[in-house]
Design brief:
Helix content is 32%, strand content 20%. It is α+β, with helices and mostly antiparallel strands and 137 residues long. It has a five-stranded mixed β-sheet. Helix 2 runs parallel beside helix 4 (96-105).
Length: 137
């Protein structure tokens, strides 16, 4: 596992924030952006979509974008939304489908670093896939 620098986390935040602007989720305060750091060092962004014919979370969009562009290893994921950490209780965090996709498609790495950085906060919080998804299937 690579040591992920604050500069790389900042790049991931900027990528997620930029991607969030393309979400069709209304109201915009419920839109999410995500960024996946691939083993190559490249950062891939994704945003949430409602409809078409099902909902797509930003985490899965970013993950599939990275994999579809040839990434073989996922080093980290960052999720962002408009607001603060306090707002996360209202809108919810990474869903079970995304956690399973990160596990199944992201390499079954329970130590995968996961960062949450709302646009209204000056810094991020870090956890791991295993803390959020302790008993994958």
């Amino acid at each position: 596992m690579k040591n992920i620098t604050k500069e790389k986390i900042w790049e991931m935040f900027e990528t997620a924030e930029k991607a969030m602007k393309f979400s069709n989720v209304k109201p915009a305060k419920s839109a999410f952006g995500a960024a996946i750091l691939g083993g190559s060092g490249k950062v891939y962004g994704g945003c949430s979509f409602d409809g078409c014919p099902m909902d797509y979370c930003a985490e899965r969009v970013a993950l599939l974008k990275a994999l579809s562009e040839g990434e073989k290893k996922i080093e980290a994921i960052l999720v962002s939304y408009q607001g603060t950490f306090r707002d996360l209780k209202k809108i919810g965090g990474t869903c079970g489908v995304c956690l399973n996709a990160l596990y199944q498609l992201g390499g079954k790495n329970l130590k995968l670093p996961m960062y949450v950085w709302p646009t209204g906060e000056e810094n991020f919080q870090k956890t791991t896939l295993g803390k959020l998804y302790p008993e994958p299937f």
